[in-house]
Design goal:
The protein is built from 8 helices and 4 strands. The protein is mainly α.
Length: 322
């Protein structure tokens, strides 16, 4: 049977190796205590790191969907506010048409009413050119261009397929824009008496450059009727306003439903972010009580190995040659 000769050099090397191993464990626990994480490099926990990468990617995607939803809600709220203003203007114009179309008011009253209608018409044009973050909200894809000129004529072609879609989830999109011709209508006529406006419904077909916005035509005809004291045309304008009011209410309901959907989507995304963040925390975050206990245990082992090693390598041949 062969025997192995144990030398001081071998003992020293083995002791240093064991000390380094113990110190490495201490350093690992100290790193967990300093960072609060179970792992700091892929070699610490390859499976955990891979899972964290997937969870972080999911959180980044959810946060982008959250921003998209918030932007969609802001856009829709600006749109809803503009439509509400249009509704109030139509209500006021309707009141004037009812009051001044009875024939019991003076010329001065009708002149005053005409001036107010003209001001309301100008306000409608401003609303038609409403912007959000520098983008026109009623012009489809042409957000850098205004919808109407000062005369209420379309300055751009508008197409029904110009839908702005915001992605708020995987395969989940929200159509956020209302096209101007759906809101204000269109007519090829550019001068009174606008006989085509007495149809069954508002003409919301696609508009081209130079088309008159139908709602603006109604206001213009009402203004002219007040100017020449034509009660019949004033009353006709009131009926036309009723048709546009119905159209406005329908569009406002559509926008409201989109806002509700966007808000529900945002709430869901926020809950998903909280849930996925919780999973990430469970995967990454260290149990501090457990880490401290392991640290103290390995610290005692390290101290004991230092003490034992010091005693084991203390005697040498020199000690016995004296």
């Amino acid at each position: 049977m062969l025997s192995v000769r144990i030398t001081n050099s071998m003992m020293n090397s083995k002791m240093l190796q064991n000390l380094n191993n113990n110190l490495r464990r201490l350093d690992k626990h100290q790193m967990k205590l300093a960072t609060g994480k179970n792992f700091n490099v892929p070699s610490d926990n390859p499976v955990g790191v891979s899972k964290s990468l997937g969870l972080n990617t999911a959180i980044s995607e959810l946060q982008q969907y959250k921003r998209n939803s918030e932007d969609a809600i802001s856009w829709l709220e600006i749109t809803e506010s503009a439509i509400e203003d249009v509704q109030e203007i139509i209500h006021r114009a309707k009141e004037l048409s009812v009051q001044l179309g009875s024939g019991t008011y003076s010329d001065a009253d009708r002149v005053s009413g005409k001036q107010e209608i003209d001001q309301l018409k100008e306000q409608l044009i401003k609303i038609a050119n409403t912007t959000f973050a520098g983008k026109h909200i009623f012009t489809g894809f042409k957000t850098n261009q205004s919808l109407l000129d000062v005369n209420g004529l379309y300055t751009i072609d508008t197409s029904n397929n110009e839908k702005m879609m915001f992605e708020v989830g995987i395969g989940d999109t929200i159509d956020i824009n209302i096209l101007g011709h759906k809101l204000f209508g269109r007519t090829a006529e550019v001068a009174p008496p606008y006989t085509s406006l007495d149809g069954v419904s508002v003409d919301t077909g696609e508009a081209v450059i130079g088309n008159q916005a139908e709602l603006l035509s109604v206001f213009e005809d009402l203004s002219n009727a007040l100017g020449v004291n034509d009660p019949a045309r004033i009353q006709t304008s009131g009926k036309r306003l009723d048709k546009h009011l119905e159209n406005i209410l329908s569009i406002r309901g559509e926008v409201g439903s989109k806002v509700n959907r966007a808000e529900l989507t945002l709430n869901r995304i926020q809950k998903d972010i909280v849930n996925v963040t919780g999973l990430l925390s469970k995967n990454e975050d260290a149990d501090m009580a457990e880490v401290i206990m392991q640290f103290k245990n390995d610290e005692n082992i390290y101290r004991a190995s230092l003490s034992t090693g010091a005693k084991a390598i203390q005697p040498t041949l020199i000690d016995f040659i004296k």
